[in-house]
Structure formats: C-alpha cells, structure tokens
C-alpha cells in the first residue's frame, strides 16, 4: 500500500502547533508497515540547504478557477519518510504558514486551493493507493478527488474543529468550484464557504485525534457550529488518539537538556530545574515548578489563569510561561512578571526552551476549554512532569486523576472536573501539597515516564482504516 500524507505543516520544516508534530511522527510510525510519502508546501521561510531539500525534475501546471499555476517539486527525508515539497509562488510566499506577521492579507483560499489541487496530480503521478488529508488546508482535495479520481480512497482527519477555513461566497468562483457544492449539504456555511465541510462531506473515512473529541464534536458545546453536519456523517467518524515521537521527546537523550535523565536516573531531573530556575532568576529551586507552554488563545485557558495569577503566585511555588498570542494577555503577564520573583515569562516560539521547561518542571498546567488531543500533556508524561488538566477531549483520554486518598496510584495527573479560575487555584494548592509528599510525588513522576505515549498503537488503527478503504 502506498500512502500520501498531506499537511500544511510538518516538523521540523514548519510548525505552529501540534499538527506539525503529528504530521512528522505519524507517517514515521506508519512507514514501518507501508510505503509513505508525506507532502507539504515549500514556504519561502524553509531553509532548503539546512534540510538538504533537492529539486526534482517534475514540474507541471494546474488550473484553479480561471488561472494557471506553475508547480515545481522538491524532496527531502524526514525521520526516514520521503517528503515532497510543493512550490508555487503564491502558496509559498509567506512569513508563517497561514499569513504574514504584519497582518496584511494573503489569499488563503487560493493558496490552499492550489495545494489541494496539486495533491490530486501527485496522487496520480506517484500511483497513490490512499490519500490522507489533514485539517481544512487540504480539505478541498477530498471534493476534487470525487470529480477527478473517484476511485482514490480519501481519509480526512480533523485536528482542531475551531479552524475551519471560512471564506466569502466569491471564493467558490475564484477556486472554480461548481455552484452545486454551495448548499448546506455541501460547503456552504452561513452564506460563505467552509473548507472543513469539504473534508467532512467528501472523504471516505473521517477521523479526529481522540475518542472523546470524536464524541464531543457531535454536541453544540464543542461542535463549532458543525455538530449537526458531523452527526450526518458520524457513521464514518473515528477517534484515534495521537501520540508523540518518543525519540525526539526522550529525556534520556534530548540534546536540549542541561542534564539527561530517565526513570532509572531520576536524580538528574532536578538538575534541570535548578539550571532553569537559575537562568530565569526564579527564587528557590526547592519549590515546585509549574509551567504553561502554548498559544495564548481562549482554547488554552490562559485568561482564567490570569484572573487568579496574583493569588496563585502567593503559593509556595515557581511559575513559568512560554508562548505567544493575544497581546492583551501578554501585556498583563509582563507586568506581573516584573512584580514577582517567582514568575517568569518568555514570549515567542522556542522548541529547545520548551524541552528544557518540560524537563525542569514538576507540573504542567493545561486548563484547556477544549482539547482535540493535546500533545503537551503527553510530552510532560514522557518527561516525568505531572499534568494538571481539564477533563475534556484527549486530556480525558490520556490523564487520570491521582486520587489523594488512594495508595494504589493509578492516576497520572490532577484533573479539574469543572473549569474556572477558582478550580485552577485549588488544583495548584493540591499540586503544592502533592509535591510536599516527596516519595509519593517521585513515584508518580517516574511512573508517568513509563506511560505509553508513542504513535505505535494509533498507527495500527490508521492502517486498519486505510485497509477498509481500498
Ligand atoms: P495546539 O492546539 O497548539 O496544536 P498541542 O498540544 O496539540 O496544541 O501541540 C502543541 C505543540 O506545540 C507541542 O509540541 C508544544 O510543546 C508546542 N508548543 C506550543 N507553544 C510553543 C512555544 N511557544 N514554543 C515552543 N513549543 C511550543
């Protein structure tokens, strides 16, 4: 079987979130069993030399709407997986995958229309048996596949339903899509065009990244307006849990860490904390260290942390944040970090620093309002860091509560059954208390490091699904 796995971002070439991690790790796990080709756009910011990408001889033209676009192909190898790169000027001329930093508009409907159409040419060119599409950026390929390659099985994965690829009605004509798709059963959505709907409606199998999220998105609370549409297509919807790359995220060999460690070399974990606290000028490394790593968006609940942050910082702990997003949140955090010597904040995206933080921390705080799967908590388990999470989506499926009264200790983290700023504060008091029980704390931390968080099991589920479609 030959699979084409398409994503708008793949680590290490381009990453804005978990999609890139998954688009690297899942194909690598699948490639142990079947032939896999990955594909993504060759954005201008990708360093071709550094990643040893080479131009292929194949170049061709595609038509999208009334215009013709010149496509050239490049290739590289990522974790043993042959990876194709699509170059087209409009698609690739950008500073981040989805836009420019100065907020000037770029035509994402056309850009990802070009990428999606190209996927069908590639499917033919490379004699692909199954096309696996990921999120709205590739979703129109499911629709075009039905017209151009009706025999080609298409699997579509929803990584985050809150990003749907919404565009005005005019995009239908711009992309040369037939009018008959512009219905509520097709890709029409409140008078505009919704790319995600194309992936949902026209794929042969539909997946999302955890069993709980697969159930949640059928409800108004989590369905982002598509719950009714998803219910119609629910017979082909499957929840398959994400994993992580357990070689890249391995505290025993991670080159980003000041000191490597593992369950059998546990004392070294603390050396990472001491070194981080020193670098960040945090007081007293004997205190528990709590970290938050992620986007400053409503989804991740940082606004709720902010509501109780002054109180939280009065607890006997250190708190560190790494992330980017809402300016208002960033400004408030900056002010508080100046006033408190047990709080540090780093803005921006920094892969190496994030690894050092996972290693240094005792607890990872992740009070998400919704979480399709979440990778942070999986990485934190791998690094022996105890996650503090809400009971939603993939967090529900991967973190059980540590029962304070139970000596059998089957939980991995602290679970908030209700989410508000008070429950967050309460969970941190629980964390400080748990940390004071040194033996119990380190036993849980070591057990977390041994949790199965790889992609191996999920890859088997995907293989089964691909098998069903061919
Ligand atoms: P998202 O909803 O953002 O995709 P996930 O939990 O699925 O969230 O994945 C987030 C990934 O991005 C993890 O690998 C996490 O470590 C990483 N990450 C998030 N923010 C940053 C940052 N500011 N710097 C470095 N890595 C980050």
CATH topology label of the largest domain: Rossmann fold
Structural class: alpha/beta
CATH class group of the largest domain = Alpha Beta
Query: How much helicity do the residues have?
Result: 25-40%
Q: What percent of residues are in strands?
A: 15-25%
Kindly give the count of domains. Answer: 2
CATH superfamily of the largest domain: Glycogen Phosphorylase B
What is the oligomer described by this structure?
Answer: single chain
Query: Main sheet: which strands, in order across?
Result: 3-4-5-2-1-6-7-11-12
Shape assignment: globular
Bound molecules: adenosine-5'-diphosphate
Question: Can you tell me the residue ranges where pLDDT is under 50 for at least 5 consecutive residues?
Answer: none
Overall pLDDT, averaged? Answer: 96
Question: What is the tally of helical segments?
Answer: 17
Name of the CATH architecture of the largest domain? 3-Layer(aba) Sandwich
Largest sheet geometry: 9 strands, mixed
Work out the radius of gyration: 23 Å
Number of β-strand runs: 18
**Amino- and carboxy-terminal Cα gap:** 9 Å
Give the helix/strand layout.
Blueprint: E1 2-6, H1 18-30, E2 35-41, E3 54-64, E4 67-78, E5 81-87, H2 89-92, H3 108-125, E6 130-134, H4 136-148, E7 154-158, E8 166-167, H5 171-174, E9 188-189, E10 192-194, H6 195-202, E11 205-208, H7 211-216, H8 227-232, E12 237-239, H9 267-279, E13 289-296, H10 302-312, E14 318-325, H11 327-339, E15 343-347, H12 351-360, E16 363-366, H13 376-382, E17 386-390, H14 393-398, E18 414-416, H15 421-436, H16 438-449, H17 456-469
Parallel strand pairs: 1-2, 1-6, 2-5, 6-7, 7-11, 11-12, 13-14, 13-16, 14-15, 16-17, 17-18
Antiparallel strand pairs: 3-4, 4-5, 8-10, 9-10
Helix pairs in contact: 1-17, 3-4, 4-6, 9-12, 10-11, 10-15
The chain binds adenosine-5'-diphosphate (ADP).
């Amino acid at each position: 079987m030959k699979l084409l796995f398409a994503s708008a971002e793949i680590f290490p070439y381009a990453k804005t979130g978990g999609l890139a991690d998954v688009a690297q790790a899942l194909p690598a796990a699948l490639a142990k069993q079947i032939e896999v080709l990955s594909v993504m756009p060759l954005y201008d910011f990708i360093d071709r030399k550094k990643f040893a990408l080479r131009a292929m001889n194949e170049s061709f033209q595609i038509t999208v709407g009334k215009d013709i676009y010149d496509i050239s192909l490049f290739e590289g190898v990522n974790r043993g997986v042959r990876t194709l790169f699509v170059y087209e000027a409009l698609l690739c001329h950008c500073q981040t995958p989805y836009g420019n930093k100065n907020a000037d508009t770029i035509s994402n409907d056309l850009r990802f229309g070009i990428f999606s159409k190209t996927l069908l040419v590639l499917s033919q060119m490379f004699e692909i048996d199954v096309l696996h599409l990921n999120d709205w950026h590739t979703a129109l390929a499911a629709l075009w596949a039905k017209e151009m390659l009706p025999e080609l099985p298409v699997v579509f994965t929803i990584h985050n339903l809150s990003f749907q690829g919404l565009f005005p009605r005019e995009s239908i004509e711009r992309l040369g899509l037939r009018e008959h798709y512009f219905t509520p059963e097709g890709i029409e959505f409140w008078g505009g065009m919704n790319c995600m709907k194309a992936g949902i409606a026209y794929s042969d199998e539909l997946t999302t990244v955890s069993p709980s999220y697969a159930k949640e998105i059928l409800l108004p609370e989590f369905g982002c307006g598509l719950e009714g549409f998803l219910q119609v297509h629910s017979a082909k919807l499957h929840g398959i849990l994400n994993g992580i790359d357990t070689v890249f995220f391995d505290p025993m060999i991670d080159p980003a860490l000041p000191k490597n460690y593992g369950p059998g070399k546990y004392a070294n974990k603390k050396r990472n904390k001491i070194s981080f606290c020193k670098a960040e000028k945090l007081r007293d490394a004997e205190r528990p260290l709590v970290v938050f790593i992620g986007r400053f968006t409503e989804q991740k609940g940082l606004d709720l942390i902010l509501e109780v942050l002054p109180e939280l910082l009065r607890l006997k702990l250190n708190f560190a944040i790494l992330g980017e997003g809402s300016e208002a949140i960033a400004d408030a955090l900056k002010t508080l970090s100046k006033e408190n010597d047990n709080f540090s904040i780093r803005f921006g995206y920094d892969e190496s620093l994030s690894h050092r933080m996972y290693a240094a921390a005792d607890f990872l705080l992740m009070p998400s309002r919704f979480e399709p799967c979440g990778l942070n908590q999986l990485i934190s388990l791998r690094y022996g860091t105890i996650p503090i999470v809400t009971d939603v989506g993939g967090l529900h499926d991967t973190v059980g509560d540590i029962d304070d009264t139970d000596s059998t200790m089957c939980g991995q983290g602290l679970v908030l059954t209700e989410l508000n700023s008070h429950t967050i504060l309460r969970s941190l008091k629980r964390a400080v208390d748990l940390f004071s029980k040194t033996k119990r704390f380190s036993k849980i931390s070591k057990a977390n490091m041994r949790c199965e968080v790889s992609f191996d099991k999920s890859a088997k589920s995907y293989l089964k699904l691909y098998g069903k479609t061919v």
